[in-house]
Amino acid sequence: MAFQLAPLNDLILNQEIDLLVVSCTLNHFDALDDLYPAATQDMLQMCITDAGFTGKHQQILTIRRPPDSQIKQVLYNGLGASSELNPYSCKQHITKLMPDIKSAKAAHIHWVLPDELVENVRLRQIFVLEILSELYHFDRYKTKGVKPNSPTITFYVAPHLYADNWLDSLVHIQSGLKLSRDLSNQAPNDCTPATFWEKAQDLAQQYPSISAEALFADDLNTLGMGAYYAVGQGSAAPSIMTLMHYQGLPQTASPPVVLVGKGVTFDTGGISIKGADGMENMRYDMCGAAVVLGVMQALAALELPINVIGVAAGVENMPDGKAYRPGDILTSLSGQTIEVMSTDAEGRLVLCDALTYIGRYNPAYVIDIATLTGAAITSLGSVASLLVANDQGLANQLIAAGTETDDKVWQMPLWPEYYSAIDSPFADMQNSGQNSPGAITAGCFLAKFTEQYRWAHLDIAGSAFTYGKGNSATGRPVQMLIQFLQNLAATNQ
Ligand code: BES
Ligand code: MN
Ligand code: ZN
């Protein structure tokens, strides 16, 4: 796929064009009027009048082969009144429009964007990334049939909105989203903890700003990461914790932001085994790690002036003779002991040791990203990632970045009343509560390992993938995290 930006006066309309998409706001469908040959212009004007096309929200008008031109198809589409433009209306619009665009099967799409949209930095990002996201397809395992084409798109904007190359940075964000979605959609027999380590090495090869290292299962054990290590005991695929260092500033300049992703490449529940129904979706239990890898790639492509450490905490949760069991008491790297109530509450066991380990980097902020609880889905559905934090300043920055990108985040409280849910009669805590609010309880658990630094936890069980048809990873919240890091880099400078 290739995407480029061009000033509107570069659009030559007497050439062969498969698909010309003209997005316009209400009563502003005249951007091309001076560019068409006269006969073409007359016919288009007639069609527009006959169809009553005004640029109303979600209005679509298709015109095939206008005279005196070599244009196969013109697709006028309305965004509605410019005063009513918002993230939701933009996304709705793209969802409605894309089937027509895909069915045109054009190799090169010429797409004219309205000034009112392009002038709004936030909305144009949401609009363009939604288009690129709709064009995403995953066919790694298909050997038959015609693969969908990946069109080239040239976006045309008014010359005065062309100045900086704003599309390039969106394409970099898109590349991170794609990496994240591709990894997430990979089958669980084809995506193990080693996959993250391999991908991290690829990134390190590709970008001098990234270096990669790994802690292998034996290392986890000898270091004393007893909770993380226990979760992987039942799997034939050894656990690996992959660390990526992105250096966008000189070594000593600023303490890093650390991102820790849950990378459970398959979650059977372990001995506390899950029901068979829908278990295949537990391939997505590594979306947190995939998000971290995607963010690292986008960061390097964007060359953001900030230091970030990304951790993919890879492990597989299987039942086996060697598997850990309910009743086991684990000693975490922090020294705190944990009574296992459910081997299906495995994500927090992996994360707690990873979170303790990264304390050595003296982080500015730590954010973990995890498909941690079904309760996050029950609470917020697929609309928002669920946030808890021990620092309100950090929480506010994440919420703001979520609003800016429409990659939404919603905060839950970590009030002291909630902590008793994980009291244990045997150990310092247990790994799950009973009849307690699941997403908050998981947050309380992690909070006991993150007191040394400013920390936020994003439960993405609802936002990272959607139910229904397969291959449904969304890459969320890559966009929000990149925005957060961009905002932070801007204040650092
Ligand atoms: N990976 C699951 C959470 C999950 C569920 C993610 C559905 C995506 C979709 C997690 O490991 C889990 O099993 N959580 C349990 C915790 C419980 C045992 C305390 C849950 O949410 O039921
Ligand atoms: Mn589980
Ligand atoms: Zn899990």
Automatic annotation (TrEMBL):
GO annotations of cellular component type: cytoplasm
Main subcellular location:
cytoplasm
Q: Which residues bind Mn(2+) 2?
A: K262, D267, D285, E346
Please explain the role this protein plays, according to its UniProt record. Answer: Presumably involved in the processing and regular turnover of intracellular proteins. Catalyzes the removal of unsubstituted N-terminal amino acids from various peptides.
- Which InterPro entries would you find in this protein's record? Leucine_aapep/pepB, Macro_dom-like, Peptidase_M17_C, Peptidase_M17_leu_NH2_pept, Peptidase_M17_N
Which HAMAP family does the record associate with it? Cytosol_peptidase_M17
Task: List this protein's GO terms for biological process.
Answer: proteolysis
Indicate which residues the UniProt annotation says bind Mn(2+) 1. Answer: D267, D344, E346
Family named by the database record? Belongs to the peptidase M17 family.
Q: What is its EC number?
A: 3.4.11.1, 3.4.11.10
- Record GO terms (molecular function): manganese ion binding; metalloaminopeptidase activity
Q: What is this protein called?
A: Probable cytosol aminopeptidase
Q: Keywords in alphabetical order, please.
A: Aminopeptidase, Cytoplasm, Hydrolase, Manganese, Metal-binding, Protease
Q: How is the cofactor bound?
A: Binds 2 manganese ions per subunit.
Q: Catalytic positions?
A: K274, R348
Provide the reaction this enzyme catalyses.
Release of an N-terminal amino acid, preferentially leucine, but not glutamic or aspartic acids; Release of an N-terminal amino acid, Xaa-|-Yaa-, in which Xaa is preferably Leu, but may be other amino acids including Pro although not Arg or Lys, and Yaa may be Pro. Amino acid amides and methyl esters are also readily hydrolyzed, but rates on arylamides are exceedingly low
Cytosol aminopeptidase domain location:
342-349
- List locations, semicolon-separated: Cytoplasm
Which species does the entry assign this protein to? Opacimonas viscosa
Q: Which residues form a coiled coil?
A: none
Taxonomic lineage: Bacteria, Pseudomonadati, Pseudomonadota, Gammaproteobacteria, Alteromonadales
Fetch the Gene3D superfamilies from UniProt.
Leucine Aminopeptidase, subunit E, domain 1 (3.40.220.10), Zn peptidases (3.40.630.10)
Cofactor(s) for this protein? Mn(2+)
PROSITE patterns found in the cross-reference section: CYTOSOL_AP (PS00631)
